[in-house]
Amino acid sequence: MNIAVCVKEVPSGTSHKRLDPATNRLDRSGDSELNPFDLHALEEAVRIREGGADVGEIVAVCMGPPSAQRALQKALALGADRAVLVSDESLAGSDIGGTAHVLAAVVAKQDAELVILGQQAADADCYVMAAAVADHLERPVVTQVAELTVEGAGIRAKRQAEHGYDVIEAPLPAVVSVSDAINTPRLPSIKAIMGAKKKPLETLSAADAGVDSGRVGESGAQSFVRSVVPPAAKSAGVTIEDSGGDSAGQVVEILAGKGLI
Amino acid sequence: MAGILVYVHHDEGELSPQGLGVLAKAASLGGDVTAFLAGSGVDDAWAGSLGGHGAAKVLVADDPALAGGLPQPVVDAIEASAREADAVLFGAGVVSADVAAGLAARIGAGIACETTEIALADGGILATRPALGDTVMVESGFRGTGIVLARANAFPVNESPSGTAPVERVAVDVKPWSQAATPAGREQAEAAGVDITEADILVAVGRGMGGPENVPIVEELAKAIGGEVAATRAVVDAGWVPYSMQVGQTGKTVSPKLYIACGVSGAIQHKVGMANAGTIVAINKDPNAPIHEFADVSVIGDALTIIPKLTDALRNR
């Protein structure tokens, strides 16, 4: 069994996130990183391999600008055997549907029975990519999985819904998205970081990837941003920088002042 | 407009308040709204009751393949009706989101997530969402059919429904691969000792507390302040505390007078369950954690150090 892990490059948590007023697209000029939710997807792929399943290869798949190679280097350091980046000017401005089309097109070429995604992208906060990719691939999908086991020719997944937990089984090939509670991603060792540089990282154009040009980019996007406005004003909160627990008294004073204690 | 279709999810016959809320919102926009129900052995009178929540008509997909509560057969069932609609709206929920996503891929439609406002303009639907840590409001439009997925608790349910709507049954043809995933059991949430939705003060434990061995530190604070302990999904999934204590999209929605979030990042899934608390105190060492954007009192520091001192300070008052 081969595993494909779909990953995304997102602005780093410390970057100031903003929309470019000229394009209404996310400003990606600041620091970027591998989407933190995708660390759990990579970790789960490695755990499946370490757990004794017969895993041939783990391939990390990404659509993004050329800078996304750095995110893929990290994916390689975390255990992917090779990486594929689809990077093309024509893909900029793609909407969720366009992105799902591209990921599905690339994954379809990877001979991967199991496709794993993180539950959401940290920049867009949407959690729909796995089900969209699965529909394109015509494969079963289980999203927001908190426990995953590969059993023979299928998977068994436990996920939380509004009423508690569901256990769902599906034959391979299948697509899953994993919750950020499924595992604790390890930090890559120096050796793994160095080793990642020797692993294959292939960059494909949209045409190489077999993408339908009518479905991607700004011209192919079926949704578009009409306006961006500030949210309703909310009174700013109080911020206290704590040092060694010295904020406790101040917090108690504030709560007492509000009549809460 | 050819019309708005609203998918109303149900869990073994229990209608989702998220879907009902979106249905009520759609009805408030004017024009005829069609509701869509999928299941096996769907009762006409039950389906018709969606008229009380704003539906002018209810389409019912009734097939044994729709019994399991899984999303992919529903995509097959709703596809034809969706292709005729100008917009298809979905309430928040794990299965609803999967149906919306699969449908968007199937019919090549645009999809808007985390929607908190829906409007009509220029003959089409507009969806507005808070984005980038809820620092901006982004309004999206669609070129063709728009698929809109609501944020949890964004739209209230009509609490005094009356009337019924005509019910029409649609043909269902569920693809074999859509039925490949099958339900293999369910773990019901165990009966809670305490109903956290009734508490005036909640002290929430998040993954920033490090591990289950540190939950008692939060319990001590809850005791000292006269509150109950709540939790994020991450720590419930990790088994630190039971599901009945979970606040958020797939947990409880709470509005206590005081909510003290300990090591909680404030991800959207949690925020939608507690943003209406009277006063929110956040203790988190990560200054970039989203919770610091909407807390009334943000303490930037190590929760493991601060909380025992806060407990002592409360006890010594």
What does this structure look like?
- The complex is a heterodimer of chains A (about 260) and B (about 325).
- With about 260 residues, chain A is α/β, with parallel strands linked by helices.
- Chain A has one domain (about 5-220): HUPs (Rossmann fold), CATH 3.40.50.620.
- Chain A contains seven helices and 13 strands.
- Chain A has a nine-stranded mixed beta sheet with strand order 9-8-7-10-6-1-4-5-11, with helices on both faces. A two-stranded antiparallel sheet of chain A has the order 2-3.
- In chain A, about 50% of the residues are buried.
- The model of chain A has no long low-confidence stretch (mean pLDDT about 95).
- By secondary structure, chain B is an alpha/beta fold.
- In chain B, helix 3 crosses helix 4 (about 95-105) and helix 5 packs parallel to helix 9.
- Chain B is about 25% helix and about 30% strand.
- Chain B has helices at about 15-30, 45-50, 70-85, 95-105, 215-225, 235, 270-275, 290-295, 305-315, and strands at about 5, 10, 15, 35-40, 55-60, 85-90, 110-115, 115-120, 125-130, 135-140, 145-150, 165-170, 180-190, 200-205, 230, 260, 280-285, 295-300.
- The mean pLDDT of chain B is about 95.
- At the A-B interface, helix 3, helix 4, strand 7, strand 8 and strand 9 of A face helix 3, helix 4, strand 7, strand 9 and strand 10 of B.
- Strand 13 (about 240) of chain A pairs parallel with strand 18 of chain B, so a sheet runs across the interface.
